[in-house]
UniProtKB/TrEMBL annotation:
Keyword Zinc: no
One Pfam short name: TetR_N
Segments forming domain HTH tetR-type: 15-75, 198-258
Top-rank taxon: Bacteria
Residue ranges of coiled coil: none
Organism: Gordonia hirsuta DSM 44140 = NBRC 16056
Record key words, sorted: DNA-binding, Transcription, Transcription regulation
Feature: DNA-binding region: 38-57, 221-240
Gene Ontology MF terms in the entry: DNA-binding transcription factor activity; transcription cis-regulatory region binding
Organism phylogeny: Bacteria, Bacillati, Actinomycetota, Actinomycetes, Mycobacteriales
Protein name: Putative TetR family transcriptional regulator
PANTHER family: HTH-TYPE TRANSCRIPTIONAL REGULATOR BETI, HTH-TYPE TRANSCRIPTIONAL REGULATOR RUTR
């Protein structure tokens, strides 16, 4: 029918507009990060006015919630039915179909209400628990969940790099290593409180990194940091130019520690195998000892101003390249891509396990996490 007013055919909304919005939003969240994406940007990507989005979603967080839930639903579907090994193989194939969407889990789910994110995560981890429990006998419920966390980290690790994964079986093998690792989860023993540094600058940094981990960098203001250390907000500016400098100091400090300890390991090493083992143990000890700072490294580097973001990303790439070389992937070897896939699986598993409260800041937790990294890398268990 031709419109009597305009003389043109009436505009119709596509039946799948909601799906188009979710697909566009997912791509933007993955590429740019949730905080850098606006509803207007999503509308531009779909080719509609921003008002059209609000017919389907009340706000940007609602879009992220449904995008995250849809991604997790796809992974859950891959785990329904079949033998344990078959289910992991199906999950591997599904993850690679939507490779970079794994960043929604690693980096963006923290922007959701905790109860919502936990409920969605539990759908997937509960299914992985069933797979792991069937593969590793005589495991406690806590141990099964820790292994499920490591298995999922192996799969999600492909979202953190661009190395070619030649076959899904590669990921399946690495995940199976995590599911059946010989390490036993240590008993939950809270870390002793220890002592705190007394300088105001250090207290600000300590409070800020804890707040960033709990509420995200964008969700924390100078007023929040000041309140945590019992200062007037204006007093923060006696030590830092603003929140951006606080984050930059934290991440540069963490990078410096990792780079210096890598130098120490290389200087003492007698061969590449012992060096890789020592690097993995040092990294695991750092991640477990500083879970909030590790979360900031993983999730907040993109929040840095330039040139800090570029400098940190370059340093991180060179750090990982040393792991790859030690693993045996030094160019021009054709094992370079395989080495990077394996190394990033181990690093991502360490990062995720370090966030488990039962392991945080304990020597036994660090040993367990290091052992998981060794298993994924195919190294002998580290000496105790």
């Amino acid at each position: 029918m031709v419109s009597a007013v305009t003389g043109s055919l009436p505009r119709t909304r596509p039946a799948n507009r909601r799906e188009l919005i979710l697909a566009a939003a997912t791509g933007l969240f993955v590429d740019r990060g949730y905080s850098a994406v606006s509803m207007a940007m999503i509308a531009d990507e779909v080719g509609v006015r921003p008002s059209a989005l609000y017919r389907h979603f009340v706000n940007k967080q609602a879009v992220l919630t449904e995008a995250f839930a849809a991604y997790v639903d796809q992974l859950c579907a891959a785990l329904d039915g079949g033998h344990e090994a078959d289910r992991l193989a199906c999950l591997s194939a599904r993850v690679l179909e939507h490779r970079y969407a794994g960043r929604l889990w690693i980096r963006e789910a923290r922007h959701l209400p905790a109860s919502t994110a936990d409920r969605i995560r539990e759908d997937l981890l509960g299914r992985l628990d069933a797979v792991v429990a069937g593969a590793a006998t005589e495991s406690t419920r806590r141990e099964v969940r820790a292994r499920s966390t490591a298995v999922l980290a192996v799969f999600l690790s492909v979202a953190t790099h661009h190395a070619e994964v030649a076959e899904p079986e590669v990921l399946t093998t690495l995940a199976w290593r995590a599911a059946t690792m010989p390490e036993r989860l240590p008993a939950h023993t809270p870390a002793p409180p220890g002592l705190s540094r007394t300088g105001t600058r250090e207290q600000i940094l300590s409070a800020a990194v804890a707040l960033f981990a709990e509420h995200t960098y964008d969700g924390v203001g100078i007023d929040d940091i000041a309140a945590a250390v019992d200062l007037a907000p204006s007093s923060i500016y006696n030590h830092f130019s603003g929140k951006a400098e606080i984050l930059a100091v934290l991440l540069h400090r963490a990078n410096g520690y990792l780079q210096v300890t890598l130098d120490d390991v290389m200087r003492r090493a007698v061969d590449t195998g012992s060096a890789l083992s020592a690097v993995a143990q040092t990294y695991a000890a750092f991640a477990v000892g500083h879970p909030a700072l590790m979360r900031a490294i993983v999730a907040e580097t993109g929040s840095l101003d330039e040139p800090d973001a570029t400098l940190l990303r370059s340093a991180q790439r060179h750090y990982v390249a040393e792991w790859v070389r030690l693993y045996g992937g030094e160019p021009p070897s054709d094992r370079t891509a395989q080495a990077r896939v394996t190394v990033m699986a181990a690093i991502t598993a360490i990062n995720e396990l370090a966030q488990l409260p039962a392991l945080a800041r304990t020597a036994a937790g660090a040993a367990y996490v290091a052992g998981c990294g060794h298993t994924i890398l195919g190294l002998p268990a580290p000496e105790r």
